[in-house]
Structure formats: C-alpha cells, structure tokens
Amino acid sequence: MFAKKIGLDLGTSFCRVCSSGTKDGIKTERNILIVNNQSNKVIYKGMKAFEIYGKESAELRVVKPVKNGILQETLYQKELLIEIIQSISGRNPLIRPEFIVSIPSNLRESDKNSVASLLDELGAKPNIMLIPEIVLSAVGLGLPIQKSSGQAIVNLGAGTIETAVMSLGGIVAGESLHFGGDDIDTAIVEHFRVNNNIEIGIKTAENLKIEFGSPEVISNSDTSEVKGKDLATGKIVTYTFKIDSIRIAILPSVHKIAESIKRVLEKLPPELASDIIDNGLVITGGVSNLKNLNFYLSNYLNVPVYRLENPFNSCILGLEYLIKNPDVLGSEITFK
Q: Is residue 78 located within the same domain as residue 42?
C-alpha cells in the first residue's frame, strides 16, 4: 500500500492541510487553542477556540503554537494537528505518510528541526521536505518561476512578510520580516488606546482592518462606531471614530512592508530589475487584501503591483500542485 503525501502549511493564524489520494480537498483550521492554566489541558482548539478568543476566563489561557512563522509550542501544535492528519492518513502505524511542509525562507536550522520532530511524532516518514512558503505561493499562483525572466512576489502573512525575486526555479534575492497582519491589528489597538483612551479587543481591531484598512485615503469625513472600554471610567462605551484613523494607524506598518520590498528590488542586477518593471510584482497572503495596497505599493516602488485570486490559499495550492507534480522544484528543497 502506497503512503499518502501530505502537504502542510503551518501558518501563524491558520494551518492548512492537503493530501494525495483524497477527495476532501484542503482542510483549514485556526491555529489557536484555549488551555486550562492549572492542568494544561486543552479545552478548545481551532475555530471553536478562536470564537472564544478574547472572552476566555482567568483560569484559561490562549496558546498560539506558531509565532511569526516559527513553531514555538510543539506539544499544542501536535494536539491541534493529530486528528486532521489521522483523518487523512488513517491510524495504521505501518503506513507512514510523506510530508511536504512550508517554512519561512530564512528559518534557522534549530527551528527546522522542531518542525521535523513534530512531524516525526505525527508518524511521518523520514526525509520530510521543507520548502520556503514564498516559493510554494508562487507555484500556487501559477507564476512561471522556472523561466529565466525574473518574477517578484510578496507573501503578506499574519506573522511574516516575505519578499522574493525568483528565476530558473530559485530565489535570486529576498528578505523576510518577523512581522505581519497580527502586528497591524496590534497597531490599531494601540492607536485607539493612545489617541482616544479607548481599549478595544484584538479581534475587533482585525475586523476594523478588514473593513476599513487602506494606506490610501478612503474618506476624510466618514465615521463609524466601535465598542470598547473607556480607560478613564472603566465603562463599556460605543465610540464614534473617523474611518481615516484606521489608515493613520496602519500606515507605519505598511511603510515598513514597502521599505522591505524596496531593499530587495535594490539588490537586483539591471537585467532582473528590467524584468520586474515588465512583469510587475505580485502580492499574496491575507494582508494583501488591504484596500488599495497594490496602488500604494505601486506608487512607492514605481513598478506595477498585482493581487491575484486566492491570496489566502496560494501556499497550500502550491503544496497541492507539488504533490501531483513532484519534479517542479529542486534547488529550494531541504530534507529533514
């Protein structure tokens, strides 16, 4: 009996799994758990834990196994993944699945070993394939990275921002920031605290980012409402704010992203730089859905910037394609 191949995108906010020989498609789960402080027992995990996140009682704590793309809570990550993996590969210990896993492009060797150890505990066959997430995203988006013409892509995730210019199947120049959409949410929370003396929840901040987040002006006068705690009185209030204040809150973060991309482009030899001017730059990942981000980056970098379909799933789609077409990549694969 042939072992199944399983693709795993171990993200800061979500973990996504796909496999060969199954009609179930892509399985997606929130990468979060609620744990009892005294017993360390997992009370809720995945989507149910996310629903409770921010409302948990004092005897419970939130665990996010992956922080800025780095696996930090192996035990709890295993707890979250084991049912998903067993539903795909079965419970026969004699049939060990082959794993192909996405990782940040600059992941340290010790962190790669942590991922390999986790998967070994989940019953993986030896020689786990570790592939940079940015490469898999390019494959998932259908970019012609095997050609000599340079292809620029930026993966804007919850915990990492990665930029790469690819040619002939490999990364020519790149940069990775331990920074992402979660940090933008925190910036919105901090903006309301400092400027309005209002405390809002991190999930509320995420919703404001999704609804109003834009590095370009949407409106100077339109307002909306948000519920939060008045830090002066301790009372729960409904606060009216200008929509443009969300732009002000996120702009330093967006500028940080733009500067990172700029540094990568400045490293390019003239011929590859010319390719990027012709081909443009592709943004993907959850943060790419910020309104007008492509226009802001295009003006900042002086190159065309595009957001293609399925920005949330580009990495797992790349894994799915690689399972079916294993000879697509070579130089960017690490085995553990």
A: yes
What pTM did the predictor assign?
A: 0.93
Mean pLDDT of the chain: 92
Show the beta-strand stretches assigned E in the chain: 5-10, 14-19, 27-30, 33-36, 42-45, 60-63, 66-67, 70-71, 98-103, 129-132, 151-156, 161-167, 170-177, 198-199, 223-230, 236-242, 281-284, 305-307, 334-335
Structural domain including 67 reads 5-135+315-335
* Residues 215 and 254 placed together within one structural domain of the fold: no
Side chain identity at residue 58, one-letter code: A
Q: Which two tokens stand for residue 255?
A: 């500028």
Domain total for the chain?
3
Q: Distance (Å, rounded) from C-alpha 103 to C-alpha 142? A: 19
* φ, ψ (nearest 5 deg) of residue 188: -70, -45
- The region, left, alpha or beta by phi > 0 then psi within -120 to 50, assigned to residue 316 is alpha
Q: Is the pLDDT of residue 22 over 80?
A: no
The three-class DSSP label of residue 238 is strand
Report the C-alpha gap between 284 and 312 in whole angstroms.
7
Residues 100 and 129: their CA atoms lie apart, in Å, by 5
What residue has token string 């000599």?
A: 148
**Pair 319, 9: CB distance under 8 Å:** yes
Q: List C-alpha distances in Å: 225 to 207, 238, 242.
A: 12, 6, 9
Alpha carbon distance 178, 159 (integer Å): 6
62 and 127 fall within a common domain: yes
What tokens does 254 get?
């967006």
Token couple for 160: 């990492």
Dihedral angle over CA of 274, 275, 276, 280, nearest 10: 120
> Quick one: DSSP state of residue 218?
S
Among the ranges given (11-25, 109-123, 163-177, 253-267), the one the predictor scored with the smallest mean pLDDT: 11-25
